[in-house]
Amino acid sequence: MNKNLFELRECALKEIENARKPSEIAQLKSKYLGKKSKISEVMSSLKNLPIEERRETGKLCNAIKKQIAEALKTKSEQILSESSFDIDITMPINKERGSLSPITIVGNEVCDILQKMGFAIVSGPEIEDEYHNFDALNIPASHPARDMQDTYWLGSNKLLRTHTSPCQVRAMERYGAPLRIAAPGRCFRNEDIDACHENTFFQLEGMCIDKNISIPNLIYVMRTILSEIFAQDVQVRLRPGYFPFVEPGFELDIKCLICGGEGCPTCKGSGWLELCPCGMVHPNVLRISNIDPDEYSGFAFGVGLTRLAMMKYHINDIRVFNTCNLEELDQFGIV
Ligand code: PHE
Q: Which residue, 65, 174, 206, 254, is most buried by CB atoms nearer than 10 A?
């Protein structure tokens, strides 16, 4: 009996020495120390042995168990310290969990549509400087329009960008004219939060500059985006809107898809939701980025991706996007 136990110990220590993965350690632990292991079997049959032999074999079993447990522990620590990540490539992947956020999905869709029309996808920093967020967009320090955008100032002329429009400026600086870009991104405003306002939200900036660009080009692009995104007839209206970096400027509103236009908290009772401010690029904006407004003209728009996702997926409260409530997120397939 004792000879068998010694052989068992040799076998176990050799196998432990050869183990390479945490999963192998787990298997060996169950094989040599688990309920169905040889040692457990021996220990449960001790009661049938004469008293002297019982005591001796019992002691030996405990000593061997302890040795095996120590060897397993040392080896397991060694394996973990040798790999910087504890990766077990044999672990199954749970494919059911996780999905893209509705904002990412609509953002990707708008980018695809624009790419087919020759727009390049660009990005810009979330921490911007005053020049790109305001000055180069025809909003000098004294301009009352600065108050329209409740800015989170960070000091040293840095701020959290209040819109994706600084990406227009960076693209003009970098590529000049002609130009077609789309820039999706996160923006920040120190706003009161309600069902349709958040202090953190997503926009997608579009800009097209070329010779002879005019308002019909803008309307064509807007209509193409909306009809492809919603794949249904949606009612839109264009009304004058004021933004210092476009002239003329418009607000493109969409009939609220949550209430069908009857009025609800999402559309603040008006039946319409501002979805895409837009307009023809102001000559000052072209000039400041070294593009000659006598030669080139352009349009720009800033579609609210968060609102677009709300309309497309019938999400009636913007606050849900930043919530940590998994049950609420789960209903939109966000988690
Ligand atoms: N950047 C503007 C805003 O967020 C929207 C806008 C973009 C308006 C492009 C006109 C053209 O308020």
A: 206
Task: Please report, for the domain that includes residue 168, its CATH number.
Answer: 3.30.930.10
The Å distance, Cα 231 to ligand 1 centre, comes to 25
Q: Percent of the chain scored above 70 by pLDDT?
A: 93
User: What b/e string do you get for 57-72 counting C-beta neighbours within 10 Å, with b at 16 or more?
Assistant: beebbeebbeebeebb
**Which of these three, 27, 53, 82, is where a domain ends?**
82
CA-nearest residue for atom 7, ligand 1, is 302
pLDDT in tens, 295-309: 999 999 999 999 899
Same domain, 53 and 106: no
Q: Which ligand 1 atom minimizes the distance to the CA of 207?
A: 9
Residues with CB under 6 A from ligand 1: 163, 165, 243, 246, 249, 277-279, 300-302
Whole-prediction pTM: 0.69
Query: Cα(324)–Cα(284) distance, rounded to whole angstroms?
Result: 43
